[in-house]
């Protein structure tokens, strides 16, 4: 039995070495990403030139086949299973940790630089290589999960020019007819990826939000509209409602579902039209450095990615911990009476 276990361990080490060696080989020529989002067709044509990082909250589905259903004699993808071949894998739940903030023990906090560095090294991420983040694409929430990883990579030093999201996610990849793998993604060693000190210009904290409100600055609530007005609320926050003075940027109007069932970001022009329809001015001098928040930071990460990366407004900060942190600091919310 001991010999068999040692044999498996040796195989795993050899496989890990080959995996990292293959990843490092991609660095021979630095590819320029076409923008903050790429389509499945582009990724298929350049899959050997980028690091594909799968992010999802159900890692078990990486090794299970996709689920299909038939309607009117046609086969449709119901749920993503498997992953894009050669993809690295990040468990979405590992992107946030419990930390002490202002003397409070709070969940849903960004990892420290050391924690994030360890996580990226554990998946064998390499430095100075373009990254395409692949959410499942089964829901708008999956796009926000991908956006949170993009936000954390940016916070810890990866240039935005080296980060893109796969529009439609793995769902769009599968429905385009590209190959899928259900092989286990082994954790590999050999990465020397390093996190840089956090970029404070991207993150906001509770004191920043209060100062922003005091000076009449723009604070955007990126949750669904029913949570903004206080009809419903997430179980992770205590009371229904919003931060007084916040402006709604409803999640319902920020994403769209394609005919193949995959969820996509809108175009920059469409987003500008959405902001205009909501009477949100991003170019006002007093509101240029907007802060986005939600319940714990996931919706906010999606809004940050849209405003900062897709529209191109660099003065956007995401409130770490969001309403969860706000309430744990004893601050009020307003909603329906």
UniProtKB/TrEMBL annotation:
<protein>
    <submittedName>
        <fullName>Rhodanese domain protein</fullName>
    </submittedName>
</protein>
<feature type="domain" description="Rhodanese">
    <location>
        <begin position="213"/>
        <end position="335"/>
    </location>
</feature>
<keyword id="KW-0677">Repeat</keyword>
<keyword id="KW-0732">Signal</keyword>
<feature type="signal peptide">
    <location>
        <begin position="1"/>
        <end position="21"/>
    </location>
</feature>
<dbReference type="InterPro" id="IPR001763">
    <property type="entry name" value="Rhodanese-like_dom"/>
</dbReference>
<feature type="domain" description="Rhodanese">
    <location>
        <begin position="46"/>
        <end position="182"/>
    </location>
</feature>
<dbReference type="InterPro" id="IPR051126">
    <property type="entry name" value="Thiosulfate_sulfurtransferase"/>
</dbReference>
<dbReference type="Pfam" id="PF00581">
    <property type="entry name" value="Rhodanese"/>
</dbReference>
<dbReference type="InterPro" id="IPR036873">
    <property type="entry name" value="Rhodanese-like_dom_sf"/>
</dbReference>
